[in-house]
Write a structure and sequence with these properties.
Layout lengths: L4 E7 L7 H12 L4 E5 L18 H12 L2 E6 L8 H11 L12 E7 L6 H13 L10 E4 L14 H21 L3
Parallel strand pairs: 1-2, 1-3, 3-4, 4-5
Length: 186
Amino acid sequence: MSNPRDVAVLVGSLRKESLNLKLAKALAALAPPNLKLDIVEIGQLSHYNQDDDANPPSEWVAFRDRIRRADAVLFVTPEYNRSVPGVLKNAIDVGSRPYGESAWDGKPGGVISASPGNIGGFGANHHLRQSLVFLNIPVLQQPEAYISGVDKLFDEQGGIANESTRGFLSKYLTTFASWIDRNAAR
């Protein structure tokens, strides 16, 4: 088997006990052998300011380089006020600039939203997709992944306790791997 595809995973929550971070770690454990999911920290990124484009902070440069090296990106996010958390939007902005030099351009992507609520972050999922279209990130359309009841999802080891949800997420990752193969720059 060739090297697994490198997937940069961006988690939209900074909380130490973040349910979305737990989900991202569980996804990494569920990933098929042809995917390597790597959580990329975004909390250290200072707020995007165009005035800094000529002399960007070192954390911006490192983040952009990491995204460019990835074969694909996977966004795992909660919903804040029917949208994505500000920290995730900031990471997207940092990676997209300076204008014309976006690290996201053409990078295959996926979106998984998760919430303790019943609609599983539907608003955040769709709002994020609007930004990703502009950034030229071909996003996996099916299956859609809105994970509700995420606060009750994990076993004591941090794995997915519910067999049905574990099966769905495994299918999502397998489909995502095929999506990456079809859309990755050669």
